[in-house]
Amino acid sequence: MTKNIVIAGAGPTGLWLAAELRLAGAEVTVLEQRTERDPHSKALTIHPRTIEVLASRGVEQPLLAEGIPIPQGHFAVLDDRLDFALLDTDFPITLALLQARTEELLEDHARDRGADIRRGHRVTGLTEHPGEVRVTVDGPDGGYTIAAAYVVGCDGTRSTVRAAAGIDFPGTSASVYGWLGDVVLTDPPSAGSYSRATADGLLLAVPLPGGLHRLVGHSPDDIRADRPGELTLDELRAKVTAIAGRDFGMHSPAWLSRFSNASRQATRYRRGRVLLAGDAAHMHMPAGGVGLNVGLQDAMNLGWKLGAVVRGEAPDDLLDTYHDERHPVGAELLEHTQAQTALMTAFSPDGRRLRSLLSTLIAEQPAFAKTLAERLSGLSVRYAGAHPLTGTRAPNLKFGDTTLFRLLHAGRPVLLDFRDEPGPAAPGAIVHHGRPLDDRPDWAALDTALIRPDGHVAEVTPSGEPDQHR
């Protein structure tokens, strides 16, 4: 049986998955129908949990060096922002970095790991056979078939892999359209991001690397089911001026586009030897800039599991837990982006009062604001577990000579042994002895903690209880 894994799509999700699978020792072929990387960047926000994911493989520095750090987030572009300083993370920021550059860095990382990335190769179909999947491909030199142990569709909302596997993609059609312009501003708003919401619409302006600003928003006439025509600079200027009272001297557009609130989710993230991740699994309004982040975290969850199965270290049914853990995360993604859409298009007097009330709660109720920030940032994701810590994402615990994220660089489980007299090693895991320097009572009450390769807590042994790893 072939050990090759085929990934359809060389966006951020597919590229990160390819690197993770190579780290696990699997053969990987990435098929991307575009011959060149898309210069237009739908996504530009990298949230705290995603930076942690990158840091747990030691590849965060190039993105931190190039991205514009923003110490706050927003929920539905309410006036009061979410202060990321409240978050328990080494990275209490979002990074503004164009998706095209993020993809370039992730592709370099995947190629350095040894992934075979083929541009101009379009997946046209697949059939499953005993022990393998045969993928039909239209390449620059004609059609061919490639055999794979597993196929992962990271090929976007119109996924060929999802359709070929017969996985349903139910949801809701567009009822709201938004507009987006990457432009040069001769008279930009004050440093950092800018937002304004009035009866005439909602506007968010974010600085981008390279001297551009992204202007994004909604107007009352955008609440419609039929797609408007192509966005022009004159229309963008008129909409921005109606909301902000000026156009900030916009000129030289690099990209003008529209987007909608159509929302869908695959009923299954796995069918046999076919799996889905990223936009192939979930489609939603880009509220809060979370889509790229959830896709990378899908790949982080799937990568170590698929690698372990292909290596023969885990049974095939481990892959069922990918759906079990990530499908609820996708459902929550749709829920909070749809809720934000309702608030972002609340242009009536009653709707604006609702926005004002929720904004006030963010300012006056730190616990409420922190909960929203944890959800937006991805830090709140928890998988099933009996102990309060199991299933949670582990923070970057500090030790005298290393940190947890550094221990995770190899992509293997990490057994943290906090006892004065360490126990035996755990098969397949990196073992670290010693207590963390952090002041964390919940972790101080443990003898051991087993951390999964994706940084979530697999098992813990409370102090004084029998050691599960003996």
TrEMBL record:
Pfam families: FAD_binding_3 (PF01494), Rng_hyd_C (PF21274). Residues 5-336 form the FAD-binding domain. Gene3D superfamilies: 3.30.70.2450, 3.40.30.120, FAD/NAD(P)-binding domain. Keywords: FAD, Flavoprotein, Monooxygenase, Oxidoreductase. Transmembrane segments: none annotated. Its cofactor is FAD. GO terms for molecular function: monooxygenase activity. It comes from the Bacteria. PANTHER family: BINDING MONOOXYGENASE, PUTATIVE (JCVI)-RELATED, TRK SYSTEM POTASSIUM UPTAKE PROTEIN. This is Monooxygenase. The lineage of its organism: Bacteria, Bacillati, Actinomycetota, Actinomycetes, Pseudonocardiales.
